[in-house]
Amino acid sequence: MLAAALAILMAVAVPPAPPSVPPPAVAPTQANERGLAVWTPGEVRCEGGVAVAGEPIRRPWSSIGWTGATNRQPVTLGFDIDATGRPVSIHRDDRRMPPNPDIAPALAASRFPAVARKGCSVSFASRVEPFATAPVADLVSYTVTPTTGRLPQQGWARIFREGTCAEAPRPAPLLRAYPNFAKVPGTPGVKDWTLISYDTDADGRPVNVRVKTGTGSKPLDDAAVEAMRQSRFTGGARTGCSYPYWHQPEVMPAPPMPDKSAFAPAAACPAGREWASAPVLRFPQAYNRRRIEGWAIVSYDIAPWGEVGNARVLAAQPSEDFGQQALQVIRSAKALASEKGRSGCVDRIRFVIRPDAASDDDADDEPIILTH
To answer: Which backbone phi and psi does 307 adopt, to 5 degrees?
Structure first.
């Protein structure tokens, strides 16, 4: 039975070890070659033409593309800013599938000054930088979240372009130490990472350990430097070694969800619905990667033979994407046949990541929880 609220739970994963680095190789430059496609936000303007600076605006995760591609159109998002500075009501005017699924989630993870504003918009434009000239920070960031496959050898060559660490035979870890990630605070909606550079002495002990680049999380930087100092390697004295550490995003809770009584007439669609085929509960994957929660309120009718129809989104936060996902959830169900069917049904659907999904305001609900 589907109760007044559905809660969708995604299991919290412990960050695996960063990937091992393959030996670098350099490929010849071509007029139309693969490179790193990077999306950057433009100016944000809100109602009345007010320009607003992000604190910060998060960049979408990169992908691998072709330098000669001509179909990379900017993607414009509309949104509001709530009193805490959080982007809400995120939507696209262009109904086509976005070329990068992380554009809206990246905006959802952004922050602005804590002043409520309406009618805001921002455009994200992309460029493809050849691997030989792409910024090292962008390349390392891609290795942390490889959205379109493994970074090619040209990218690794750019990261390890200095020193003797990449020369054969490459050093192997005798002891690879890691930070205690449970004690390192994360950033909601953001996968923090740091690239640690170091040399090794004749005994394989890391020396001159320092932060080369990263997202700027000082707790992670400090913990990663200490972990590298505790590591040990083969290969004797080397220079220019690097290793990335990363931290899962902290959960970003959904904005407050209104009670469904504000949307459903008291006499509409009595409680007690039973399903012949239960709804298929799926979390929007792009938001799960950033651990961003959301909700939607949907209405629908049920035909006498059990089919769900006339489904529509009444409200959704922080992005319209949660509303579209909620429609898929409702449409995937089939009710038991009845004499008259039902109309005006309204349900709240919660997309929840943290394990303690039920809150006090949902004490009278019977949530359905998806775990995997």
So the answer is: -70, 140
